[in-house]
Design goal:
Number of helices: 10
Strand content: 15-25%
Largest sheet: 7 strands, mixed
Helix content: 40-55%
Bound molecules: S-adenosylmethionine
Structural class: alpha/beta
Number of strands: 9
Length: 294
């Protein structure tokens, strides 16, 4: 497993996911879900955004690669490999792979591997996804990871990569409003002695709140749209579309049932569908489609 043992950053990331990120803090809820908005008001929007990934993958095939699979934590993720014989889960965290096995059992092949050094034959996969994982690599290995995913695709097949931008022009426009709303929420919480956001979110999802841990996150490094177009676009055909333009911070601050939150998110989703490139480049999370040459 080249790379996994060598890099201090990777060791730290692996330890984090083995010991913290993929520990269950409730019924089917991992510590890692603290980065998601699990409230009912956001559910429909998030569900529909997850399903966008399938549109860009070949619906059928022998092997689908899930590079940095984690435990396949959301039910929508199962859709991506529904028409495939095998889903190959590659992850540096053994805990992730053990958890993934509980979800897809015999359909899965489980490989402890570093996504910057994929140990697979060129052209072996009919489709690939890599969701929220490349950002855990040291900066100088990001291109290598894109290249590896591209290399293992069969000719004419596609891969979908999702990672957040370091900053979103769209979200930045709302930042003053977000800050104000969060300040007001904190103030009202203190006045009425309500629970903090994490506990409220867990309760809204019908789950027990996460036990406090000393460490809540791990190493990440993100690149912007210009970097992806220049560095990755120079070596392979890619499209930058929208996965989801609203950040969790934005949603927690401004999207609420009593403010018609579900309807605002429906409107946002419709706009994203209409202008996928604009929202892909300016929203929080792009969906990057890589297409292997015929
Ligand atoms: C944020 S989680 C995302 C998991 C899953 N793709 C999802 O969207 O729920 C990142 C995952 O990538 C894995 N990971 C981090 N660095 C990796 C590397 N260099 N090679 C393989 N997997 C890696 C972690 O162990 C973790 O399971």
């Amino acid at each position: 497993m080249t790379g996994v043992e060598q890099s201090g950053v990777k060791q730290e990331v692996r330890q984090f996911y083995d010991q913290i990120g993929w520990t269950l803090v409730g019924d089917d809820v991992y510590q890692n879900a603290r980065y998601e908005d699990l409230r009912p008001v956001a559910r429909e929007y998030i569900h529909r955004c997850h399903l966008r990934v399938s549109r860009h993958l070949s619906p059928q095939g022998r092997f689908l690669l899930d590079a940095g699979s984690g435990p396949i934590q959301y039910p929508e993720y199962l859709e991506y490999s529904r028409g495939y014989q095998y889903r190959v889960c590659a992850d540096i965290s053994i805990t992730a792979l053990k958890e993934a096995r509980k979800r897809i059992g015999e359909q899965g092949l489980y490989v402890v591997a570093d996504i910057a050094n994929l140990p697979f034959k060129s052209g072996a996969f009919d489709g690939a996804v890599s969701l929220h994982t490349i950002h855990h690599l040291p900066e100088d290995e990001h291109v290598q990871a894109y290249q590896g995913i591209y290399r293992v695709l069969a000719p004419g097949r596609t891969a979908v990569v999702v990672n957040g931008w370091p900053a979103s022009r769209l979200m930045n426009r709302f930042e003053p409003l977000v800050r104000l709303a969060l300040r007001m929420q904190n103030l009202s919480r203190r006045l009425v002695g309500k629970r903090p956001a994490d506990k409220a979110q867990a309760a809204a999802a019908g789950k027990p709140a996460a036990r406090p841990t000393t460490k809540k996150g791990t190493f990440t490094q993100r690149h912007d749209v210009a970097w992806v177009r220049q560095q990755v676009g120079a070596i392979m055909q890619l499209e930058i579309l929208t996965w989801r333009s609203a950040s969790v911070r934005f949603m927690r601050a401004l999207i609420h049932r009593w403010l018609g939150g579900r309807y605002w998110l429906r409107l946002l989703y419709r706009l994203e569908e209409r202008y996928p490139v604009y929202f892909g480049e300016n929203g929080q999370y792009p969906l990057i489609v890589l297409k292997r040459n015929e």
